[in-house]
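Hi everyone,

Forwarding the result from last night's run.
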Amino acid sequence: IVVALTEGLVADIAKGSNLQLLGTYVASSLCWAISAGAKNEKIKSVDDLKGATFAVSRYGSGSHLMAGVLASQQGWGKDAVKFKVVGAFKALRDSVNSQDTDVFMWEHFTTKPFHDSKEVKRVGEIYTPWPCFMLAARSDVAKAKAAAFKSVLAAVGEAAEIFHRESKTMPKFISENYKLKLEDAEKWYQGVNIVATPVIPAEAIKKALEALQSSGVLTPSNYAKPKPLEEFVFKELASLSDSKLLPSPKPSAKL
């Protein structure tokens, strides 16, 4: 069983992977911070990003896809931003500080210590328009181990309930183990909604597919024929829902 970003799993399945979704792990959106070089005076807000070069960890990654989502939301068109693959998180920070690229996107709380230290500067943010993490497995393995998977997923669901119930101790635990300020750990804890449910919003898959196509991750060459949404889901353990985009949503904490 794998826990991964929704858009990555949807892309792999759309391209023909034998993965299938087992459920929604985190129902809340992921906040991607948009960062520029500390001394870059030309970029001060999202309004300055049309035509910018985005540093990305790899093509098809969240840092790549969400830049395409940003361009779409701003009405710029998919060709209004450029991309350069530079590698992992430190390489992204180095790239904008050398002004080899203009900006990069990375998860808000992971990036915040580098905003606080002024290594890079925050110029904006964007939230995924879908639940940010899903559970998945290879369909052949899920079929062979369906009973065991059902027990595991039930246990993960119970753990998620404990996580939300232990509101007095969890922020301190998160702060100490992930090197975050306690106030930042508290904000993350207040905003995240770990549900570990076998229910998958159909709209989440639709929105991810639209973003993957508009950003060029899915093309006629690797996704020529649209796949029915039902084929993204391992139906023996999970089900599609048309009722809500985010099952039992928990409001995001104000950052």
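The domain at 2-29+130-241 is CATH 3.40.190.10 (D-Maltodextrin-Binding Protein; domain 2).

Cheers,
N.
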